[in-house]
Amino acid sequence: xxxxxxxxxxxxxxxxxxxxxxxxxxxxxxxxxxxxxxxxxxxxxxxxxxxxxxxxxxxxxxxxxxxxxxxxxxxxxxxxxxxxxxxxxxxxxxxxxxxxxxxxxxxxxxxxxxxxxxxxxxxxxxxxxxx
Length: 131
What we know:
By secondary structure, this protein is an all-alpha fold. Helices cover 65% and strands 0% of the residues.
């Protein structure tokens, strides 16, 4: 009995949160807000809120359309577990209607859209012209 208590305390599982997920009334947003660092840029939060307020579903955002006609000439390497996870998402949620390369393209397009200003600022801060 003490071992059971020790196991639940050590692995950091929030039982109340898990029960709320099973009940269908997850309080994920509240939990995420508690975990966010205090020094996070307000711009990122605002962008995320804007995306949430437009109420575009995950399927509409990433799995329903793609602008690529073919795979392309470049190869990338990803972890085997990520490949399996992404493939399962495509097969299950998208009913195998979108190729993996297009799904990754949509994810990257969203990432660059979300963090364009931060990436540009960091790049410009580190870029030093030769002359």
